[in-house]
Amino acid sequence: xxxxxxxxxxxxxxxxxxxxxxxxxxxxxxxxxxxxxxxxxxxxxxxxxxxxxxxxxxxxxxxxxxxxxxxxxxxxxxxxxxxxxxxxxxxxxxxxxxxxxxxxxxxxxxxxxxxxxxxxxxxxxxxxxxxxxxxxxxxxxxxxxxxxxxxxxxxxxxxxxxxxxxxxxxxxxxxxxxxxxxxxxxxxxxxxxxxxxxxxxxxxxxxxxxxxxxxxxxxxxxxxxxxxxxxxxxxxxxxxxxxxxxxxxxxxxxxxxxxxxxxxxxxxxxxx
Length: 272
Description:
By secondary structure, the protein is mainly alpha-helical. The chain has helices spanning 3-17, 35-38, 69-79, 83-95, 112-118, 121-133, 142-155, 165-174, 177-195, 207-213, 216-228, 237-268. Helices cover 58% and strands 0% of the residues. Helix 1 packs parallel to helix 12.
C-alpha cells in the first residue's frame, strides 16, 4: 500500500483513538453504524443544575484592551448558549490537542476572551461551530469538528458529495497549501489507480479546470479531500468508505458520551 494511504489510515485510527483518552468515559467495542441511527442519538440536556451555573457573576466582562472585538462577541454568544454547550466549549478549550498558549489548562470565564483571542484558528472555528449549531460535543481537533459537521449536514439533507464548480473553487481557494497539494496529488493517484492513466500533476492554477474535466467519482474524491482537510492524497473509493464508516461510529460515540461525562464531572465536583 502506498505510504500516503498508510498515513491516511493511521490518521483515521489516531482520531478514533481519542475516544480512549482519559478525558472521556470508557467505550465498549462497536461496529460502524449507518447514518439513520445517528438521527436518534443526540444527547438530551440533563435537568440537574450543572456546575457552571454555580457562578453568579455577571458576564461577559468588558472588552479587554488587548483582545479583538471578535473575542468579546464570542463570549456574548457563549453566555447566551445552553448550559451544556457552554460546558462542552470549556472542555474543548482544555482538551484541544494542537499546541497553543493555554493547552491543557482549564479556562475560567474571566479569561475566556483572552483564551479565544490566542487560540489557533482551527480551535476558534470549533468553538464557534458549537455555538452556531447549539451542539454539545467535546471536540479535540479540527478533524473531529469536520467529522461532526459532515454528519450534521448529512442529517439536515444539506450535504453535497460533488460540489458545483464555483463552490469547489471557493473551497479550494480557502484551503491550506497542504490541502491544495493533496487535491493536486489525488488527481494523479486516483487516475493511475482507477483509470490506469499516468500523468504529471496539474498545476495549482489549473486545479479548477482539472476538477471540471474529472469523472464523477474523482470529483467526489476531491471534494472529500477538501471537506476533511486532508494533507495526503487518496486513490480509491474504499478508503473514503472506510473513513466514513469510522466517522459515523466516532460521532455517535462522542454524542453518547456527553451526558454521562457531564454528570460524572458534576458528581465528582460535589455539585449533585
